[in-house]
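Box 3.1. Reading complex inputs
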Amino acid sequence: DIQMTQSPSSLSASVGDRVTITCRASQSISNYLNWYQQKPGKAPKLLIYAASSLQSGVPSRFSGSGSGTDFTLTINRLQPEDFATYYCQQSYSPPPHTFGQGTKLQIK
Amino acid sequence: EVQLVESGGDLVQPGGSLKLSCAASAFAFSNYWMSWVRQAPGKGLEWVANIDQDGSEKNYVDSVKGRFTISRDNVKNSLFLQMSSLRAEDTAVYYCARDPYQRYSSSRFDFWGQGTLVTVSS
């Protein structure tokens, strides 16, 4: 199975900051990489799919990049509602489509 | 508005069985792959299983193969997860999720249910 490793595991930032979260795959996954946001007690929400495509309704301050094994999620001008846990997920065939361990973004 | 509503979670003894359901509404259920994803308390997300549009293709994570069965009823717009030989490590919130995957597109989960809690304990 493909292993996904996110860094950092946790991150502190302030409103208005720019933050970057990294996800690394154990083998090349082309651009088959998704990003999700999860708030406590809630279901995850899709932010980015296919490494860089913004899901409908997601603010443009969220962006994704990368291909192969290394990917990044960038959040520009952090808003209070952005403090949450973020997960990457690879969807390179065949399943299982594994998730990273998560990155908790906290208020500094 | 797309809705996915899970049900069936409960407290069950190790070795027991449970069947989860996910009722879908406001979209053409039969056109979508569907998946189950779980999250153990305080832990990350784990992909569990998926099923194609007509139920002919099913995939499972190794840890549940032979114990869990995913199925669907496209007439009743419902997804199911039959779980047997349950273990303590199966304790988790189980989410159903919609996957708009089509040939030449990428798999991702664009809508999720609210989750249902399965607790395996004596």
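In summary: Chain A touches chain B through 26 residues (CB under 8 Å).
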